[in-house]
Amino acid sequence: MNSEVTQASNFVQGVDTAFIIILAICFIFLIGLTAVMLYFIYKYNKKKNPKPTQIEGSTKLEIIWTIIPFLLTMLMFYYGWAGWKPMHKPPKDAMEVTVYGRMWNFSFEYDNGRRSDTLFLPKDKPVKLNLVAMDVLHSLYIPAFRVKQDMVPGKKDNFMWFEPQKEGTYELFCAEYCGLQHSYMYTYVEVMKDSAFQAWIADTTSVAASVAAVESPAATGKRIMQNIGCFACHTIDGTRLVGPSFKGIWGETQTVVTGRDKREVTVDEEYIKRSIFDPNADIADGYQKGLMLTYEGQLSDDDVNNIIEYLKTLK
Predict the structure, then answer these.
(1) Phi-psi category of 94—alpha, beta or left, where left has phi over 0 and alpha has psi -120 to 50?
(2) Which of 29, 37, 72, 278 has the greatest number of beta carbons closer than 10 A?
(3) What strands, in cross-sheet order, belong to the sheet with 127-133?
(4) How far is CA 191 from its chain centroid?
(5) Residue closest to 132 by CA, chosen among 115, 120, 145, 150
């Protein structure tokens, strides 16, 4: 096993120790019980023991096979508990990052307001991830760090913490089946030196300016839609998915259900903004209500305008 992966966080040793001990005990029982079973089959078969004999109970034997499994169970419990307990006591000075999970992507928000679709972290600094599920159950899992925590909609104080201890790139994905595109709900953790992280986290305005300088509004809109997971539910080639396709939608007349009434609307700026910030107000005819949640507070007016410019290009 790669030592850099096994020591990727402060919880690796505790989890691996519990796993190895439990696995070893399971193998001991598997091999021991199989050996005893084969021995009994050989010793007490019909040829060697043609006349059955009554075996009396043994209190001593019953005590032994009760106490030994109990002690082994307590041993497994101890190491499991010892590995689990510190996961629920984050240091007070831990850096906090808010993780938003929705069908079907993760996004990460830092204290200074910067957002990314990759989790950037400093090495050797405790990190507390505040987990927010926007729609259904998700589960944030970082295998190399040996941490996994369910993301429950509406649950308060839903978090996980750890301390990255190796620089590198690690997988992060959803471990709770959450719908059609569940298997595509993954991203990466980038662990870097603290100096490099501080430079990255502080570089919000210059990065935004440089991106704006090289990208057209339409290209910016496409990038925003990729980052917030729009293409997990909507296609750009006209095929049907969870939501209507974006292909040729701009300027067209759509049949929508508003409350209990069907009506015709034109796909314009007002309709797009309402669909983003109040997605259940007008439901495209033939699609299910409640699958999309609002992006209120997550997208600015400029973001929405860039999205609109991109939709205009999808003829």
Answers:
(1) beta
(2) 72
(3) 115-116, 105-109, 95-102, 127-133, 159-162
(4) 18
(5) 150
Structure tokens at 254: 């759509």
Q: Which amino acid is at 51?
A: K
Strand-by-strand arrangement of the 261-266 sheet: 261-266, 253-258, 283-284
Structural domains of the chain, ranges and CATH numbers in brackets = 3-45+59-88 (no CATH), 95-206 (2.60.40.420), 215-312 (1.10.760.10)
> Which pLDDT value is given to residue 215?
65
Query: Is pLDDT at 76 greater than 90 in this prediction?
Result: yes
Classify 60 as helix, strand or coil. helix
Model pTM?
0.70
Q: For the stretch 55-89, what's the b/e string if a residue is b when 16 or more beta carbons lie within 10 angstroms of its beta carbon? A: eeeeeeeeeeeeeeeeebeeebeebbeebeeebee
Q: Which of 59-63, 126-130, 230-234 has the lowest mean pLDDT?
A: 230-234
Taking CA atoms, 23 is separated from 26, 41, 76, 300, in Å, by 5, 27, 10, 51
**DSSP bridge partners of 132:** 100
Q: Where are the alpha helices (DSSP H) in 150-203?
A: 194-202
Asked if the model's pLDDT at residue 196 lies above 50, the reply is yes
* Paired strand residues for 140: 149, 174
Strand partners, 92: none
* pLDDT for res 66: 93
State which amino acid sits at residue 230: C
DSSP 249-290: -TT-EEEEEETTEEEEEE-SHHHHHHHHHSTTSSEETTS-TT
Enter the tokens of residue 44. 């007490």
